[in-house]
Amino acid sequence: MSYFLGVLLKILGLVVPLLLGIAFMVLAERKVMGSIQRRKGPNVVGVFGILQPIADGLKLMVKETVLPSNANLMIFLAAPVLTFMLALISWSVIPFGDGLVLCDLNIGVLYLFAVSSLGVYGVIMAGWSSNSKYAFLGALRSTAQMVSYEVSLGLILISTLIFAGSLNFTEIVESQKEVWFAVPLFPLFIMFFISCLAETNRAPFDLPEAEAELVAGYNVEYSSMAFALFFLGEYGNMILMCTFCSIMFLGGWLPLPILSSFDFMPPGFWLGLKAAFFLFGFIWVRASFPRYRYDQLMRLGWKVFLPLSLAWVFFVSGLMIGNDWLP
Amino acid sequence: MTEFFPIFIFLIISLGLSLILVGIPFIVAPQKADPEKISAYECGFDPFDDARGKFDIRFYLVAILFIIFDLEVSFLFPWSLVLGEISFFGFWTMIFFLLILTLGFVYEWKKGALDWE
Amino acid sequence: MNLFLAAFAALGISSSIMVIRANNPVYSVLYLILVFVNVSGILILQGLDFFAMIFLVVYVGAIAVLFLFVVMMLNIKVEEKQESMLRYLPVGGGIGLIFFLEVVIGLDKEFVPLNLLSLGPSYESEILPEYLHWGETLAQKTGIEAIGQVIYTYYFYYFFMASFILLVAMIGAILLTLHNDPKVKRQEVFEQNAREFSRTIQKAS
To answer: Where does the sequence pass through the membrane (chain B) (predicted)?
Structure first.
C-alpha cells in the first residue's frame, strides 16, 4: 500500500510542476518575444502579468467545445487526450537527480524514443477526424516532418550511446562526469537541438501551423479544453525535448563546473537550469528566424542531417573501437 | 517488468486527467451549436466537399523510407551498447550493414526521391 | 501479473476483432494500433522490454503510419458491410486453421502440457538438466545486451540478409512510387552555394 502511495506521490510531484512549468513557459515565451520585439508582452493580469497563463487556462476552460458537424467525434476527442497523455507519460523515465526518477528503466532512452514516435498519432488523428482541408494538410505535413527528423534524432542518439554505453538515463548522466558529451560531440549537439525544433514543430520548422497558409494546421477545428490539451502537450513535449537534450549532452543534473560555489544546490536545479537554457534557445530561434519552405525543410532532414548523423555514427564508433576507448 | 508498473499507473492517471480536462467544458460551458459554427472552417466559405482526398504520393515514400531507416536505427541500438564486447567482428558486421543501406540511400538520392517540388 | 496478462490479451483480442468488424478502414487501422500496443504490453509482461519498445517504435511508430496514409488516401467512404461474412469463411477458416496448427506444433510440451501433436520429443529439456543455469548465474545481462552479443556475431548472416531485404524494399518503394516530372523546377542547393559571384554577375557595359 505504501508502495502505491509512494508512486502516486511521485506522479503528483511530476505532473503538478510540469503543468506549472508549461504555464510559465508560455508566459516566458510571450515575455521574451515581447522583449525581443521591443514591446511589453502580457502585463495586466497579476504583477508583471505573472497570472496570465492561469487566466488563459481558466478562460479556455469555460469555452464551448465546438464539435464540427462532419467530424468523426470519437477520434476527434481522442486525439488531444492522446497527445496530452503521451506528453505526460514520457516524463516517467527522466531523472531529476540520482535516484529522483519515477521508474529507472534500463532502456530509458528507447522508451522515450518509442513514446515520442507515438506522438504523430495525435496529429494524424486530429487532422483526419476534423474533416477539414487545412487540418488534413497540416497533419500530413506535420507527420512527414516529425517522421523525417526522428530518423536523424535516432542516429544522433546512437553516437551518444556509444559514448555512454548504456540506455539508462542515470548511467548516461554518470558517464558524463568527466566531460559533457556536448564537448566531444559538439556538431551532433547542434544537430540534435535543431532536430528537436523540427520534432516539436517549432519555428522555424512550424510548417504544420503556418498561419499564413494553413491557418493553424491540424488543430484548426479545436476549441476550448481540447485545444488547450494540444497546446499543453506541445509545450510539454518542448520542455521534454529540452530536458532530454540537456541529459544527453549537457550532463543532466551535474553541476556547472564554473559555478562550483553553488554545488550545494539540489540536482534538479541544475537540470532545470540547463533545460531553461535550451527553452530560451527555442524562443530566441522563434523570434529570429523566418519560416522554412517545405521542400527546404525536407531537404535539410533527409539530405543534410541524415547523412551527417550516419557519418558520425561511423566516425564515432570507429574512433572508439580503434583506440579501445569503449566503456 | 515490475519496473514498468509505475508507468502503467501514470498512464492510467494521465488518461483520467486528460479525460477530465476534456470533459470540464461540457459541464461548465454552455453548448450552443448552430450550423455555421459547427461546419468545417474554410475561411468563411461553405466547405466545398469532403476534405479527405488524394494527396501526394511522396508522403508514402517518406513513410516507407522512414520505416527502413527506423529499422536501421533499431538495429543500431543494441549494437551501440555492446560494441566493446563484440569487438572488431561485430563492428565490421555493422559497418557492412550500414554500407548496404548507404548504397540504397545513394540510389534514392540519385533518383531524386528525396526532392520535394 | 496474470490479471495484467488477461487484461492485455482481452483488450488485444477484442480490438483485433474490431479491426475486421469496423466499418471505416481508418478505424480499422486505429484498432490495429491498439492491438500493437496491447501486444507490446504483453511483451513487457514477459520481460522482453527491448522487444516491446522496438515493437512500439517499428510497428506503431512507422508501419502503422504508412497503413494510415494508405487508408486515408484510398478515400473509401463508409463501406457497406452488407455482404455476408460467411462468404470468406472457407478460405479464411482454412488459413486460420493452418496458422493454428503451426502454433500448436511449434510449441513444445512445456507450454502446452497435453500436446499430442508436437512432433518428436523436445530435446532441450532432456539434454539440459534443470539445475544447470550457469549462464545466468555468471553474467547478469540485460535483454538488449544479450541480443546485441549474438546478433552481430553468431547470427551475422541473418543480419546481412536483413540489410539486403531493406535495400530491396528501399529500391522497390522508389521504383513503384516515384515518377519525376521533368517540368518541375527544383532548387539545386549545392550548385547554388558553389556558384561564384564573379563568374555569374558581369557588367553589361
So the answer is: 6-29, 59-80, 86-107
The answer to whether residue B116 is domain-embedded is no
Does C135 reside within a domain? no
Neighbours of chain B (3+ CB pairs under 8 A): A, C
Inform me whether the C-beta atom of residue C180 falls under 8 Å from chain B C-beta atoms: yes
Contact criterion met (CB < 8 Å) for B82 and C148: yes
Boundaries of domain holding B77: 3-111
* Domains identified in chain B, total number: 1
Residue C183, in any domain of the structure: no
Tell me whether C84 touches chain B (CB under 8 Å): no
Residue of chain B nearest C159, judged by CA positions? B97
pLDDT of residue C62: 87
**What pLDDT, on a 0 to 100 scale, did the predictor assign at position C118?**
47
> CB-based contact (8 Å) between A225 and chain B?
yes
Q: What is the CATH number for B70?
A: 1.20.58.1610
Question: How far B115 CA lies from chain A's nearest CA (Å)?
Answer: 7
- Window 76-105 of B, Cβ < 8 Å to C: 77-79, 81-82, 85-86, 89-90, 93-94, 96-97, 100-101, 103-105
Contacts of A164 in chain C (CB under 8 A): none
Mean pLDDT value of segment B104-108: 89
**pLDDT at residue A280, rounded to an integer:** 92
The reported pTM is 0.86
> Which three-class secondary structure string do you get for chain A?
CHHHHHHHHHHHHHHHHHHHHHHHHHHHHHHHHHHHCCCCCCCCCCHHHCCHHHHHHHHHHCCCCCCCCCCCHHHHHHHHHHHHHHHHHHHHHCCCCCCCCCCCCCCHHHHHHHHHHHHHHHHHHHHHHHCCHHHHHHHHHHHHHHHHHHHHHHHHHHHHHHHHCCCCHHHHHHCCCCCCCCCCCHHHHHHHHHHHHHHCCCCCCCHHHCHHHHCCHHHCCCCHHHHHHHHHHHHHHHHHHHHHHHHHHCCCCCCCHHHHHHCCCCHHHHHHHHHHHHHHHHHHHHHHCCCCCHHHHHHHHHHHHHHHHHHHHHHHHHHHHHCCCCC
Average pLDDT value over all residues in chain C: 78
For B52, the closest of C57, C75, C170 (CB atoms) is: C75
Q: Is B107 on the interface with C (CB under 8 A)?
A: yes
Of residues C136 and A2, more confidence is placed in A2
Name the A residues in 76-105 with CB < 8 Å from any B CB.
77, 80-81, 84-85, 88-89, 92, 102-105
